[in-house]
Amino acid sequence: MAFRTTLLYGDSGLEAEPNIQTKNLLDFSDSDKAIPLIEDQVYDEAPLNTVLRLISVHSLTCGGLKASVLQHYRRIVNQSYGSHALNKVLKMQKMGLIREKGGHGKMQCEYAPMLFQQMKKNYDMLPENFSEAKLNDMAYAYSGFSPLLCKILEEGDRVKWAGWPKTMLGEDLDPISDKDPRGTCIFVIGGLTRSEMALIRENLPNIALITTSALITGDKLLNNITNI
């Protein structure tokens, strides 16, 4: 199971400040030390979801946290927000949203870690030059971060979905190769953010219909995590 970083990034326009904070964190995504930005948010009594989002992004983007760093985050979250917040951190570990490097046992997630460094390079997820004024810039909605889902769809559209599972209309008609005017329909399982949907509409005109199992945000994801 791959958790998209955009779910923890916040929905553009509604949570601009968390976007900037997360972008700053992504710029130092290979750090294996506690991030002062996260500590400051805890000590400043920022909303719990903001803190959990930043811890999760730190973990996901660097392939897991060192045991000492994870223990430090647990301690300050427990001291500042209480045991219910610590329970949520533990639940996020079991889901794979927060990982311990080399961890094992009942708190270890069975899913493989996110290869953020590799994907960041392959899909140019953090472009050096971008414009928030240009709607056709994949990075505009997330203050300089290009969502992985949108970049993968962009690649699929560029290669005319070669190698992708497709549904044909009729026995001999391939609406993609024949440039059917009705365009392509995609279905995203697991949910889609409004910002991702807007990026797809603006940048991938060949996709005529976007469907998904749910409209989601980072807060919805975190709020639905129940205590252990």
Automatic annotation (TrEMBL):
Example of a GO biological process term: vesicle-mediated transport
Classification via SUPFAM superfamilies: Sec1/munc18-like (SM) proteins
InterPro entries xref list: Sec1-like, Sec1-like_sf, VPS33_dom3b
One Pfam family this sequence matches: Sec1
Similarity comment: family membership: Belongs to the STXBP/unc-18/SEC1 family.
Name assigned to this protein: Uncharacterized protein
Organism of derivation: Caenorhabditis remanei
Lineage, highest ranks first: Eukaryota, Metazoa, Ecdysozoa, Nematoda, Chromadorea
